Amino acid sequence: METLGRADLGGGWTLTHFDEVPSTNAELVRLALSGAGEGTALSADHQSAGKGRLGRNWDDVSGSSVLVSVLLRPRFSVNDYFATTCAMSLAAVESLRALGVAASIKWPNDLLVGKEKISGILAEAGETPVGRYVVVGVGINVNQSREDLAVLGRPATSLREATGSLLGPGERDALRIDLLRRFRAAYEPLQVSFAPAFAELLGRYRAACATLESFVRVELSDGEVISGQVLDISNQGHLLVELDSCIRSVSAGDVEHLYS
To answer: Which of 30, 86, 173, 215 is 20 to 30 Å from 47 at the Cα level?
Structure first.
């Protein structure tokens, strides 16, 4: 695990970049347990044991993705931790849009370009002797070709496919730093005055969310499958789905957009 660079992001926030780690999230959880502070961020050119949602693996080839995780010490309630992935989703959408890519959010924390996934976000929370922590990680497909993406077995795209250009090491560094700066700008107001900051953040999340008002199929954790139209996203981050006879609040599940 060779260190390739460090960046001071200000306010105690730092980014350390490695050639390879098993998982940026797992490494930050280890650092959280040893007392590392808020704003400690790690990135890597390659993860040998990357993690995705619902226990899935996150596979990448060295230099093909932007892989970043950041350690947080939220002062707000555990019940409001959705705000952390909300902030990261928005930061990633805004970073991609700044590069000319029309990205949107797929609830709860994937990013799409059209109907294809370009990014995934994973948050992990816990308790340590020095307090609670949340680690939020994001992976963005950057330099994969259409052939590289085909092996994933699901619709996916990359910055290379969306823009026609490869990103070199310096450009990937710039994207990591831009992403973290946007995330910090969205997250830090939550630490100061949660309610008004989250109201503003959730409004922006809803505006960028392709799942809102879409017809969806949702596979729940117990295997139940429901289908209906998404009416809203609650303050707790739950999907409100209109079924034939009721409105269901979905806190977690595997969502498929049903396109016409």
So the answer is: 86
Q: What is the DSSP letter of 32?
A: H
Structure tokens at 50: 């990357």
**HEC assignment per residue over 157-198:** CCHHHHHCCCCCHHHHHHHHHHHHHHHHHHHHHHHHCHHHHH
Work out the mean pLDDT of the chain and round it to a whole number. Answer: 93
Domain of 135 in residue numbering reads as 3-208
Q: Cβ–Cβ contacts within 10 Å for residue 11, how many?
A: 10
Which of 25-28's residues contact partners 24+ apart within 8 Å by CB, and which partners? 25/51, 25/69, 25/122, 25/124, 25/135, 25/137, 26/51, 27/69, 28/69, 28/70, 28/71, 28/135, 28/137
| 193 and 229 both lie in a single domain | no
Reported as a pLDDT band with limits 50, 70 and 90, residue 57 is low
On whether both 137 and 198 belong to a single domain, the answer is yes
User: Are 221 and 165 part of one and the same domain?
Assistant: no
How many domains is the chain partitioned into structurally?
A: 2
Q: Answer for the pair 157, 118: CB distance below 8 angstroms, yes or no.
A: yes
Write the CATH number for 235: 2.30.30.100
Q: Which two tokens stand for residue 91?
A: 């930061």
Which pLDDT band, with edges at 50, 70 and 90, does 54 fall under? very low
Tokens of 220: 């729940």
Task: Say whether both 55 and 137 belong to one domain.
Answer: yes
Nearest to 187 by CA among 90, 54, 53, 58: 90
